[in-house]
Design brief:
alpha/beta; Rossmann fold; 6-stranded mixed sheet; 5 helices; 6 strands
């Protein structure tokens, strides 16, 4: 049995976003799984189109897998750069956005624990004719009952 989630680090852009996230009226409806900076930005644009008519927010899930050889709270690559870049990206969108960063041992198990089956999941993936790692992850999430929307980019 593997440990799926060890640490949760919630980050907000500014106090206004944080207050809207704490507000009981804030309801997450669309989840975006971080794949890369550029692909996540494109997926975020699609997710904002989905969330805007619903008058609800978006949650970006940045999940980094830590090998078993390392302690769970010490990833091999510092996660701070990705989180700072995500904060910069989110500033340009008008919808409410929550950024959640997770360190885990198994990405699929961690996502199953934090995703809600009632809300759509958006992923930006590289356009290839063969199944990439992220496409395989999306297929596994679909098999588990999640509604995954793939946005293919070059």
């Amino acid at each position: 049995m593997s440990t799926a989630i060890g640490i949760e680090k919630l980050i907000s852009i500014d106090s206004e976003i944080l207050m809207r996230a704490i507000n009981p009226g804030f309801r997450l409806s669309v989840s975006v799984i971080f794949t890369s900076i550029n692909r996540t930005l494109i997926a975020l644009e699609k997710a904002s189109q989905l969330a805007e008519p619903l008058k609800s927010g978006i949650e970006i899930l940045a999940v980094q897998t830590v090998p078993f050889a390392l302690p769970l709270d010490e990833p091999p690559v510092p996660f701070g750069f990705v989180v700072r870049r995500l904060k910069e990206m989110v500033a340009q969108f008008a919808v409410q956005i929550k950024i959640s960063a997770y360190l885990c041992r198994d990405q699929l198990e961690a996502l199953k624990r934090v995703l809600n089956r009632d809300y759509p999941v958006v992923m930006g993936v590289r356009k290839r004719w063969w199944p990439t790692r992220n496409k395989r992850l999306a297929r596994k999430l679909r098999r588990a009952g999640y509604d995954v929307i793939l946005i293919e980019t070059e």
